[in-house]
Amino acid sequence: MKIFIACSKHFYDRVSEIKRQLETQGHQITVPNCFEEPFKEDRLKELNPKEHIKFKSSMMKLHEPKISENDALLVLNYEKYGQSNYIGGATFMEIVKAWELGKKIFLLNPIPSNIFEDELRGINPIILDGDLSRIQDKKIEVEIQSFITKEKYEELLEFFNQKAEFVKEDFQETFYFDETSNLRIQRGNNSAKLWHKSGNVHDEFMEEIEIKTKREYFENLEKFLNKLGHDVKIKWFRKRKQFNWDGIKVCLDYTKSYGYIIELEKIGTEDNKNQILKELKQKLNELGIPLTPREEFERKYNYYKENWRKLIENDMD
Helix, strand or coil for residue 107? Predict the structure, then answer.
């Protein structure tokens, strides 16, 4: 996440450590205006009132461009001269601008009891209570899939072996539990996992929560979910070859009794998911593959769901 830090100049000595911690979490940080010369305003105010007015005006004009290019505003509101969780006028203006632009607003500490209290409560910022780890991007899995022929699968395999980075080959057993919960477990060559996806099976955007564990714990995961009242509804068996193609996760799959599929996937956020989807569709088009309509996926999925036991039993390949 791109984060712009705002605070009183009296707190600038704390910014570098906050910046370091947030960058460790993977965020990109923009430091406050005039960070390198925190008390320039005070000197101008004392020496040249007219220059001070010009300076103050120029700083306020920076609010919109600085905040626009970031995803969120983080306000460092510490104690100042006996005032708890201090937020001054300039910082409040930055908060209002972030609110107008629809940005996320975080306060490091609770809303202060001052002249802006009612307005701040109306803006309803996210209170971190001093815990920077609570600043998180919701990760959205953006993916598109298409059915392909065996011949196209072989052609793509040759292409990606030449043009992309080979990541791994895996044989995966995946169990879907009752559809209302959207819970799944999977066993691969080297590990197992329990995961949950929001939305429906063939949605382009899904929030994903995943817990990985040892391969030998797969049966225990199934028993655990059974104890909680979740039953296996579908079992899938697939061979997967995974590549990294210009930052895109590419999977070439053969799923037993289901067919050959190419999947393009990239992780994004709520803010950039549509841009990523457009990129993935463009990449699929570059490969000369039409996007399989959702209705076709649902038709084949529903048929497999109703008949997978018989299909698997009859498929001896």
Answer: strand
